[in-house]
Write a structure and sequence with these properties.
Layout lengths: L2 E11 L5 E7 L11 H12 L8 E10 L5 E6 L2
Antiparallel strand pairs: 1-2, 1-3, 3-4
């Protein structure tokens, strides 16, 4: 049965002094798909790049739907 985990989107400084927008799963569960970070960051870039200013966060930007210990079904934004 599929599960969901909340995705938080954060805009902060990158190592070169620019701005970076990235996403994190709000909970670290042992059954999350591995690896999921590349897919998550691509989804964040497509949906949130240039939408936030440095220091801004969207705590419930979306969710990742996944099969426990399996794969990602989809990412979806929250309205």
């Amino acid at each position: 049965m599929a599960r969901t985990v909340n995705i938080e989107v954060i805009c902060d400084s990158d190592s070169e002094g620019g701005i970076e927008t990235f996403g994190v799963a709000s909970e670290h569960r042992p059954d999350l798909p591995e690896p999921f970070n590349n897919s998550l960051q691509e989804w964040v870039r497509e949906n949130f790049e240039n939408e936030l200013d440095k220091g801004q966060t969207i705590s419930e930007a979306g969710e990742m739907v996944y099969e426990p210990n399996g794969g990602i079904i989809e990412f979806r934004t929250k309205d």
